[in-house]
Specification:
Length: about 220
């Protein structure tokens, strides 16, 4: 039985190798058949694509992409999401310890994913927006695409239920929504293969007395 399984695996690998070899041969043959005019056109297309990419990057930078910044009011939030196609907004409170954990990771991702605007907004200064978006847990990330809220990252529930989640795990979670350009496996967190799959479970949220939202911050916030 084991021998049959090994034979199947060997055949699959052999077929995959043959397919890759055929694709490479086809590409090489295509290049060999190109004359100088074709090569020049190819260079022009690549140069045009590079210029377009650089222009897009400059446009993002002019709008504040590449940095993790704070917006001072609800009015500024609406301006930000209107100006940028992809926005990650961290709804936070100064007294919530776990908000500072998000700050650390988002600062890194803002520089890496300049296609997306990363901002933060103090819920104490945005009661209307907090109510409108039904922000009930602090911290929460609102993922806004084309001016519409597409998804939320509520606390650390989707990040392994641990304060020790990595930047790569948060990157994976944002990538699943399409709010950033993510080239990894969308179906499995980057730490799942290291025995941490069991951490990706639901946790109970803790209610903060006297407030209209819950918090997953440390007990000092109660």
């Amino acid at each position: 039985m084991a021998g049959n399984s090994m034979d199947v695996v060997a055949k699959v690998l052999e077929q995959s190798a043959r397919l890759m070899e055929e694709q490479l041969d086809a590409q090489m043959e295509k290049l060999e058949k190109m004359d100088e005019d074709d090569m020049e056109k190819l260079k022009e297309r690549r140069l045009a694509a590079l210029k377009k990419s650089q222009k897009q990057k400059q446009e993002w930078l002019s709008k504040g992409h590449g940095e993790y910044s704070e917006v001072p009011s609800e009015k500024d939030f609406f301006s930000e999401v209107k100006e940028s196609k992809n926005v990650v907004c961290h709804f936070y409170r100064d007294s919530a310890f776990r908000c500072k954990i998000f700050d650390k990771h988002l600062s890194v991702l803002a520089k890496k994913h300049q296609e997306t605007k990363f901002i933060k907004l103090n819920v104490e200064k945005a009661p209307f927006l907090t109510e409108r978006l039904r922000i009930k847990v602090i911290p929460t990330l609102a993922l806004v695409k084309d001016g519409k809220t597409k998804d939320y990252v509520v606390g650390f529930t989707d990040l392994g239920n641990t304060d020790e989640f990595t930047t790569e795990v948060l990157e994976w979670r944002l990538g699943r929504t399409g709010i950033i350009d993510y080239s990894g496996n969308h179906f499995e967190p980057p730490t799942a293969g290291q025995g941490s799959r069991s951490k990706f479970t639901k946790v109970e949220k803790k209610t903060i007395r006297g407030r209209g939202y819950d918090s997953q911050s440390d007990s000092d916030d109660d």
